[in-house]
Design a protein that fits this description.
Shape: globular
CATH topology of the domain at 131-251: Glutathione S-transferase Yfyf (Class Pi), Chain A, domain 2
Domain GST C-terminal: 130-266
CATH class of the domain at 131-251: Mainly Alpha
InterPro entries: Glutathione-S-Trfase_C-like, Glutathione-S-Trfase_C_sf, Glutathione_S-Trfase, Glutathione_S-Trfase_N, Thioredoxin-like_sf
Strand order of the largest sheet: 2-1-3-4
Domain GST N-terminal: 14-127
Distance between the termini: 45 Å
Radius of gyration: 19 Å
Largest sheet: 4 strands, mixed
Order of helices and strands: EHEHEEHHHHEEHHH
Mean pLDDT: 96
Structural class: alpha+beta
Number of strands: 6
Number of helices: 9
Low-confidence stretches: none
Length: 266
């Protein structure tokens, strides 16, 4: 079916898994007070790849005895990310968001990369001290933040969530996802970790690309087919990424972060 874009785009219900919640406007849609526990940190999130990044650093720091936290589930399919309480701490209405109550004035942090940097810098952990490695860590962290939308919002969406299969879109984003995996594979052929030692760069990259090569991302069934992203993308080709992913997966804090139980909003 061909499509000719109109001169001016207008919103419409596109269908698919997220069609009912997406709008071209920001801001709160309903009143909702965020629950708050008694720990110094309050996390509002979901166990998606972006959410798991932050779970991991919180569990790593908790294991070192440096902090404790409460974690609450933001059900994005129910629109809880558009409640007034959540929008107040994250105007972009995306998980995760964190509030630090250990300071005189509470500090809200949103965007998973920003939360990783905030906590790593505050506790001076998981940041390489060697200037070259530290710079590499920042580069790979920013690479992940800029690249993962092609995997999630691009490949994952059109491969698993779109209401109909679109060959061009799937091919376009499959090509880019495999290119990114090859970037990682070539780097990890010469490095045990992303930047000299285990760091927040590994924590950021693992829930996306590690989960993908280990067969844990985009597996299921949609309206038109069963899907298995690891098979579709021939992830066996990226043996260095698989080796690295298994190394990260075997850390106790990572295991706990991946299965973290999030408390309900009410």
């Amino acid at each position: 079916m061909s499509y000719t874009p109109p001169k001016v785009w207008t919103p419409n219900d596109m269908g698919g898994k997220f069609g009912g919640i997406n709008r071209p406007s920001a801001g709160a849609r309903h009143e909702q007070t965020l629950p708050k526990g008694d720990k110094p940190y309050q996390l509002y999130s979901l166990n998606t790849p972006n959410g798991i990044k932050v779970n991991i650093i919180l569990e790593e720091l908790k294991a070192l005895g440096l902090l404790d936290y409460d974690a609450f589930k933001i059900n994005i399919m129910n629109g809880e990310q558009f409640g007034t309480g959540f929008v107040e701490i994250n105007p972009n209405s995306k998980i995760p968001a964190l509030v630090d109550y250990s300071t005189d004035t509470p500090i809200s942090v949103f965007e998973s990369g920003a939360i990783l940097l905030y906590l790593a810098q505050k506790y001076d952990k998981f940041l390489p001290k060697n200037p070259t490695d530290h710079t590499q860590m920042l580069s790979w962290l920013m690479w992940q933040m800029g690249s993962a939308p092609f995997v999630g919002g691009g490949f994952g969406h059109f491969y698993a969530y779109a209401p109909t299969p679109i060959e061009y879109a799937i091919n376009r984003y499959a090509m880019e996802t495999k290119r990114q995996l090859d970037v990682l594979d070539k780097h990890l052929a010469e490095h045990d970790y992303m930047a000299g030692e285990y760091s927040i760069a590994d924590m950021a990259i693992y829930p996306w690309y590690g989960a993908l090569v280990l067969g844990n991302l985009y597996i299921g069934e949609n309206d038109y087919a069963k899907y298995n992203a690891s098979e579709f993308l021939s992830v066996y080709e990226y043996q260095n990424v698989i080796r690295w992913a298994n190394t990260i997966k075997n850390r106790k804090a990572v295991e706990q972060g991946e299965k973290l139980e999030l408390l309900p909003m009410a």
